[in-house]
Amino acid sequence: MSDVSQNSSFNNQSSDYGNVYRPQTVFSVLTFTLLAMLVVATFFWNMLVLVTILRVRTFHRVPHNLVASMAISDVMVAALVMPLSLVHELNGRRWKLGRVLCQVWISFDVLCCTASIWNVTAIALDRYWSITRHLEYTLKTRKKISNVMIGLTWLLSSVISLSPLFGWGETYSEENMECQVSQEPSYTIFSTFGAFYLPLCVVLFVYWKIYKAAKFRIGSKRTNTITPVAEAGEVKEASRQQPQMVFTVRHATVTFQTDSETWREQKEKRAALMVGILIGVFVLCWIPFFLTELITPLCSCHIPPIWKSVFLWLGYSNSFFNPLIYTAFNKNYNNAFRNLFSRQR
């Protein structure tokens, strides 16, 4: 009987050992290599944006402070969150680094990812106000509002990430070797809505308003005509090929009529396209993860670990896409990157 129990104990230990130290297949090695490359690329691109903003004096203003805040949160994701998450995956989603490091990792995970999401929201709001209210949204006002949005972003992210440390659920289980975001249902609702669903509603509303404003401007441009009143001292220059220019000296009124797009319209169109792509990628990257995070604790559903990993890393990849999307639609960044690398040579 003793031999049987010893053999049973040995088999259980061997089974646990095999679960933790299972042999790596070619597919898993390739997957971990690609994930490691994603970590390095995410860190590199966001650091490049930060260095460019610090070195170029013209970038020391709005909206580049919002971009810098987003880059800081994404750099922190790449430096503090993704490497430990990769170790977690290598260990078969078993946590063997202790309670303290688990709590630190989860806190930074929630903090940085939430800040990254809200920074995208802040950039979308800034673009919306600059497009629809460019007369009232002066540089001074824009600077104040952007600083407030950055402060609120990091404050809300801190509240959501630090709540479990004060007893709102548990992140670490020594018995099951688990380290995960608190599964307390009340915290799950609070954190998912505060970190994703609320900013999602904001960015979708913002882009809908930007789209409506763009359609209104295009429609008004096609139908609206300006007929100035002729007065004394009026100088007119007109030709059949050139746009009409009317200048009234007495009332200092200048009007232009032209079929070509103005510089502001082209800039607004690029900004609207950039915001649309930024929001679209943000939604595609994060919505699978936050749907499973909300549903799993509430309905006690079982999601296969492989899908949890896929959804988590898809969300992390948003930190890689953010700097690529923003800089791709900004010629100033492209020129600054070229100057930066040419100086290094």
From TrEMBL:
Main localization of the protein? Answer: membrane
State the coiled-coil residue ranges. Answer: none
Q: Which GO terms describe its molecular function?
A: alpha2-adrenergic receptor activity; G protein-coupled serotonin receptor activity; neurotransmitter receptor activity
Q: Where is the G-protein coupled receptors family 1 profile domain?
A: 45-326
Organism of this sequence: Danio rerio
Indicate how the chain sits in the lipid bilayer: Multi-pass membrane protein
* Localization of this protein: Cell membrane
Name of the protein: 5-hydroxytryptamine (serotonin) receptor 5A, Genome duplicate A
The record's family statement is: Belongs to the G-protein coupled receptor 1 family.
Does the record's keyword annotation contain Transmembrane helix? yes
PROSITE patterns on file: G_PROTEIN_RECEP_F1_1, G_PROTEIN_RECEP_F1_2
| Gene transcribed to yield this protein | htr5aa
